[in-house]
């Protein structure tokens, strides 16, 4: 590999990055790892990941994925972990999508996803939560956040918030959603898969 100039991509081990709320009896896993819904806007999943920059320290990427197509339908980047950034991401998703069926929105048990403001914003949706400390219950969005780091961000020296925003936009909007193929999508991109689904349904 050294002779060919090939360098392995190192993936950081999973670490818990948000505080879990203690409402075990009230937060249920409605999704139950059913990661293959039949139609768009049947199940969304969401999570937050940390990204390190030289000038601004950690910044925080919140993403929402439609599980049918694995498309990232909304994302926000912020310098703080204020709940308003999560709410903004949900608002963007609601504005972009026409929800015609009862919707499940799945997340971990972090305080951003269990607070009153989040409950009010997702009123009418079925809120679903991973079991405490079990990232596999939200495997698809966890996998996306791993991919954006492994395939894109970890290959760069990230200077500041503006730089990482540009990199996230470049990866999500011009590559992941529109060009990166997925076995789940019959080796189409998320956009191609959704376009085909809408055409035949």
TrEMBL record:
One Pfam family linked to the record: rve
One GO-annotated biological process of the protein: DNA integration
Family matches, as InterPro entries: Integrase_cat-core (IPR001584), RNaseH-like_sf (IPR012337), RNaseH_sf (IPR036397), Transpos_IS3 (IPR048020), Transposase_IS3/IS150/IS904 (IPR050900)
Molecular-function annotations in GO: nucleic acid binding
UniProt domain Integrase catalytic: residue ranges: 36-198
Gene3D superfamilies referenced in this protein's UniProt entry, alphabetically: Ribonuclease H-like superfamily/Ribonuclease H
Protein name: IS3 family transposase
NCBIfam families, per database record: transpos_IS3
């Amino acid at each position: 590999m050294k002779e060919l100039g090939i360098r392995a991509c190192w993936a950081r081990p999973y670490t818990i990055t948000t505080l879990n709320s203690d409402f075990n009896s009230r937060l249920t896993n409605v999704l139950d790892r059913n990661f293959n819904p039949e139609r768009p806007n049947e199940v969304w999943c969401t999570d937050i990941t940390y990204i390190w920059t030289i000038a601004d320290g950690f910044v925080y990427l919140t993403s929402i994925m439609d599980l049918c197509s694995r498309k990232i339908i909304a994302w926000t980047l912020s310098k703080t972990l204020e709940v308003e950034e999560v709410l903004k991401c949900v608002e963007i998703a609601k504005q972009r999508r026409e929800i015609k069926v009862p919707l499940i929105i799945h997340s971990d048990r972090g305080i951003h996803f269990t607070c009153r403001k989040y409950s009010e914003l997702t009123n009418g949706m079925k809120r679903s939560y991973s079991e405490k400390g079990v990232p596999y219950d939200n495997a698809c969005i966890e996998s996306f956040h791993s991919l954006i780091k492994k395939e894109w961000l970890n290959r760069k020296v990230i200077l500041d918030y503006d730089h990482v925003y540009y990199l996230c936009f470049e990866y999500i909007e011009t590559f992941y959603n529109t060009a990166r193929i997925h076995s789940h999508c019959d080796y189409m991109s998320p956009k191609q898969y959704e376009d085909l689904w809408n055409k035949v349904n």
